[in-house]
Amino acid sequence: ALWRHLAPSAQRVNQNVYKNLQPQASYKVAVLGAAGGIGQPLSLLIKMSPLISTLNLYDIANVKGVAADISHCNTPSKVQAFTGPSELANALKDVDVVVIPAGVPRKPGMTRDDLFNINAGIVKTLVEAVADNCPDAFIHIISNPVNSTVPIAAEVLKQKGVFDPKKLFGVTTLDVVRANTFVAEKKNLKLIDVDVPVVGGHAGITILPLLSKTQPSVSFTDEEVQALTVRIQNAGTEVVEAKAGAGSATLSMAYAAARFVESSLRALDGDSDVYECTFVQSDLTELPFFASRVKLGRKGIEAFVTSDLQGLTEYEEKALEALKPELKASIEKGIAFTQKPS
Ligand code: NAD
Ligand code: LMR
């Protein structure tokens, strides 16, 4: 429902605002890192969802004001603020979906892996609390480097004996959002129609848009494939450089993360037609984690869309092989971090 607000017709917008005033379900969502650059607009966007009854906003600082502000929107969910580790358990009680954008962002010249030293520990601590307080929740990991933070989260959940691989998701929706935007621009297509699966991981060459699988079916020259692939892979860096030290993508990320939350809630609510690309534990390749399109249902991942990896072009096959060593190393780095005594 949220995305229909983008329709240009004022009448449709009014109908949907009205619709959002009517609760349609009663899921509880928590955002950990809610006062940050992503956390604030993400919390605002998901406050628009008629599927949410309670929105718990957690951060180590500044979250009270964010929650007070967002709580004045006349949409159904109740907004609550939680500050600091002593309030974390309460923020997570009975939650259905936990979204984690906590952690530091890149500055120009940095790779996502340069964030590992700070963000690995943040994700570990937060996921430990998730394991203790809402082990059945869908967990959405946004904090970078996603290629390592998702394996960290999986290990923490395993150590706590509550790992459900169907419910742990690395959020790669922004790669799909970017691919859709850039392909629609390049090929003069209606944005709403374009869907490009993006597989692999979420850093540099590990981000692999499968342009040959674009819906609707489009043909690209070799030069277009090369230029679009590189642009999609470097889109995060494009934003980091444009922000010139003030952080990385926050607004487009909030949009993408809100789409993934809305998809998760629709799946929980019984919608049988929910598909998203996401970085998850996977058997699709020899790597233990891999981003691909999955079908979401009430219990998390219901199926993997295996056909996306079949019949690839030579360019895509080569790119897939080329990304594996880097992705494997990032996954192993995450796992190794959780084996160290803390
Ligand atoms: P930010 O610095 O603006 O916000 C981060 C927030 O996390 C801050 O409010 C901070 O107080 C909070 N925080 C720090 N430690 C915490 C802890 N232990 N518990 C709870 N909250 C804590 O950063 P941002 O721009 O919002 O980016 C956040 C993360 O998201 C970064 O790691 C960034 O690289 C990543 N990111 C991922 C994607 C993606 O596609 N997955 C896209 C953009 C950014
Ligand atoms: C992105 O893709 O925008 C994020 O992963 C943030 C970054 O550091 O590029």
TrEMBL record:
Any Gene Ontology CC annotation: mitochondrion
Domain Lactate/malate dehydrogenase N-terminal residues, every copy: 28-170
EC number, as in UniProt: 1.1.1.37
Enzymatic reactions: (S)-malate + NAD(+) = oxaloacetate + NADH + H(+)
Record GO terms (molecular function): L-malate dehydrogenase (NAD+) activity
Keywords in alphabetical order: NAD, Oxidoreductase, Tricarboxylic acid cycle
Domain Lactate/malate dehydrogenase C-terminal: 172-337
Entry's Gene Ontology BP terms: malate metabolic process; tricarboxylic acid cycle
Membership in a protein family: Belongs to the LDH/MDH superfamily. MDH type 1 family.
Subunit structure: Homodimer.
Protein name: malate dehydrogenase
Organism: Cucurbita maxima (Pumpkin)
Residues of the full protein shown: 68 to 409 of 412
